[in-house]
Amino acid sequence: MAVLGPPPAPTVDPSQPNTLRWDDIGLVLTLDFITEEEEAAMIQAFHAQDVPGRDSKSEAKAAKRRRVSRHFGYHFDYTTFGASETHFTPVPSYITSLLPRLPIQSYLPDQFTVQYYPPGSGIPPHVDTHSMFGEALYSLSFGSAVPMQFRMSGPNDARKMRLPKRSLQPDGGAAPSRNQPGEGERDDDHHHRHEGKKGGEQQQKQQKDKEGEQEEEEEEQEPPAWELLLPARSLLLMTGPSRYGYTHAIRARKTDIIDGRTVPRRDRYSLTMRTVRRGSEVGCDCAYPGVCDARIREEMTRQDEARERRKYQ
Ligand SMILES: O=C(O)CCC(=O)C(=O)O
Ligand SMILES: [Fe+2]
To answer: Acidic residues bias located where (predicted)?
Structure first.
């Protein structure tokens, strides 16, 4: 595990004291982006949507201290990535009313996920898919504050994103195939690339054993992670390096150290907002090919083609 360093100092324009900027990595945190009333309404709306059948399921999930996600707007069926079907769920007004306030107005999000994090839960380090969503990624925190970990991606992240994964192909794909870019490893949500879990974990371990010393060398090269406290009602905007080159994560912990004090985790919610890329917009030419799903897909295609050519030689 990489060492945890202090967060870099933000720039604050005195005329906008609620806006903390890390311009070199394209990160912006806006404090008090929503009011306490809006926050209360969003929490209420989240729970008002609990329908009996689903309720017991989410309760069971919560009992396991798992995140619960709800999608609004356009979302994909990532199980058939590439020929994915787009679904639309009407977007509630407590979400659409926020759009005119977003710092970037030239394009607006059309894909929204409300997530509930029971105390102690988190989200593994990941880079949100590059090719399927526009540059700006937003996360509005509500309910309570939580520290988010950021780390410049390194060779380990690139390797993990190329690990063979159990196939989700319609034919049943008996042979393990690589994870399709953009296909997450979470059951409830498929927008991310995570460090190995489930089927991947075992393969990851085997590969680790195989790689032995090389692995240790890479671990040592890992850039330091740092934590940024996301206060309730704050809006995080990731663009540029923080969006394309960094992993972000929330450690699963019962308590956090905030300003030197041990603070128990409480219910936390987030609203992530993304813009779905369509048609010719799908793709990416970022400066971080190691963790870019578009580049990984190209690599896979090239490898397949080379394999095909060898077959007929
Ligand atoms: O909960 C958050 O603030 C972030 C969630 C996240 O990173 C994601 O869903 O991709
Ligand atoms: Fe994310």
So the answer is: 212-222
Least Cα distance to 74 among 278, 290, 310, 311 occurs for: 278
The fold for domain 4-311 equals Jelly Rolls (2.60.120)
- Residue 270 Cβ inside 6 Å of ligand 1? The answer reads yes
What is the residue extent of each domain of the chain?
A: 4-311
Q: Hey, whose CA ends up nearest to atom 9 of ligand 1?
A: 272
Which among 82, 54, 310, 84 is positioned nearest to 188, based on CA atoms?
Answer: 54
Give burial (CB, 10 Å; 0-12/13-18/19+) of 84: middle
Say how far apart CA 292 and CA 189 lie, in whole Å: 19
Q: Is 190 helix (H, G, I), strand (E, B) or coil?
A: coil
173 and 143 in contact (C-beta within 8 Å)? no
Is the CB of residue 249 less than 8 Å from the CB of residue 128? no
- Does the C-beta of 274 come closer than 6 Å to ligand 1? no
Which ligand gives the minimal distance to the CA of 67? 1
What's the pTM value of the predicted model, to 2 decimals?
0.82
| Mean pLDDT of each 10-residue bin along the chain, 313 residues long | 78 97 98 98 91 58 74 74 68 98 98 96 96 97 98 94 59 36 39 47 47 49 88 98 98 94 97 94 94 93 90 83
